Amino acid sequence: MTRTVYWEDVKEGDALPSYSMPITTTLIVDQVSGSQDYNLMHHDTEFARRQGAPDAYVNTGFIEALLSRSLTDFMGDTGFLKKLKHQMRRFNALGDTIKVAGKVTGKRIEGNEHLVECEVWVENNRDGVSVPGSAIVRLPSWAG
Length: 144
Hints:
Blueprint: E1 19-22, H1 25-35, H2 45-50, H3 60-75, E2 80-86, E3 97-110, E4 113-124, E5 128-139
Antiparallel strand pairs: 1-3, 2-5, 3-4, 4-5
C-alpha cells in the first residue's frame, strides 16, 4: 500500500517522525562492515580516544542514513528528498543513546514544485544536538 503525504496537509511546526537507538558494539560493527569504512576511529576504542573522541563512533554515512530515514518516513512513498545538509559537530560514540528528530520550518511553491523545508538533527545523551541539519522535500499537491 502506498502512503501519500500531500503538501496541503503539512503545516509549519509539524514534527517529523523521531526515533532513538543506543550505540552498541553490535551497531558499531554493523555500520563499519556495511559501509566498508574501516577507519580505526569507527571501531577501535583506544585509537578513537587517542584522537580526542570519547570512544569509537559512527561514521558520516550512518548519520546521513538516519536523517534520511526520518525524512522518508515523513514524506511517504510519493515524496522526493531534494536536498539534505548537515554538520557533524560532536561525536556519536559507543555507549551513547542517540535520537533523530526534525520539524517543518516552511513551505513554498517554486514553479510546479510544492516544497517543504525541514530542520533535522541528531542528539545524544552527552552533548545534546550533535548533528544539526536542514532538508528540502518535494511533496505532491492535491491541485496536481
